[in-house]
């Protein structure tokens, strides 16, 4: 039973055809892999997932590209290749070309996976020992991160260990390694890769600290000046209003402080 399952799995994998990875938005050319000999009324088809017809050629009568593929698929009558333009992720699937005459022969089979390019990657220093001989870096992407520790002895560094968080993007890999005195963080999948690179000797150089105290004093100054301005304006307006009211010999008593109350909000 178990063996049959394994055999079934293997057969399933084999039946998938040549793996092809292609980046979203690019064009994909699928060529026939076996020589094609067509006789009158033989039918050559390109199908996806054994269910969707892309193109159908009835030799030597007519070639029909399916309605949903008309604007984005090109079929070569000469060599029977199929060009899919601007592929999207939903175009992933098993593409099979077959010729049916007396019997059906498969002449091409591809397992196509359309992938987005990987996102950018960032290398940051998490820990630096006081003597700078041990450094832990974090290599992170939008949805995963990996940390890695290197022990350095003057110019030579070695990888000591690390841990990784689960990579959510399927098919992508995230790697951090040493090369030529630099730490390289590499995010890649079958169609693209991004990297961040930093020299080992630059990793433990602490950036010149912008004084936090200086910053808060600057802020405090702004606050003080603004509050002062508000109070001054309030005073001016109050005096002005009081004077006006006095001149008009007011009938109602509306205290000018309300104005300041409003101003404060
Ligand atoms: C088949 O035809 C297409 C379209 O004309 C062309 O791009 C491709 O290179 C051809 N393939 C071979 C093997 O000649
Ligand atoms: C083929 O099947 C796969 C998996 O079931 C699906 O994701 C894909 O969209 C299908 N492709 C087409 C063109 O229908
Ligand atoms: C590392 O460098 C220091 C000074 O530059 C030197 O004294 C020491 O011997 C070096 N250590 C090794 C293992 O090379
Ligand atoms: C290592 O760095 C040196 C100098 O920067 C450069 O000449 C050399 O090509 C680099 N080697 C590799 C394998 O990157
Ligand atoms: C990144 O890693 C992948 C897989 O490990 C590798 O194929 C690719 O060449 C690397 N890219 C760079 C720029 O080092």
TrEMBL record:
Chief localisation class: membrane
Entry keywords, A to Z: Glycoprotein, Membrane, Signal, Transmembrane, Transmembrane helix
UniProt key word Glycoprotein: yes
Listed transmembrane segments: 222-242
Locations listed in the record: Membrane
Record-level GO cellular component terms: membrane
Annotated Gene3D superfamilies: Immunoglobulins
Domain of life assignment: Eukaryota
InterPro entries xrefs: CD2/SLAM_rcpt (IPR015631), Ig-like_dom_sf (IPR036179), Ig-like_fold (IPR013783)
Signal peptide per UniProt: 1-15
Entry protein name: Ig-like domain-containing protein
Origin species: Labrus bergylta
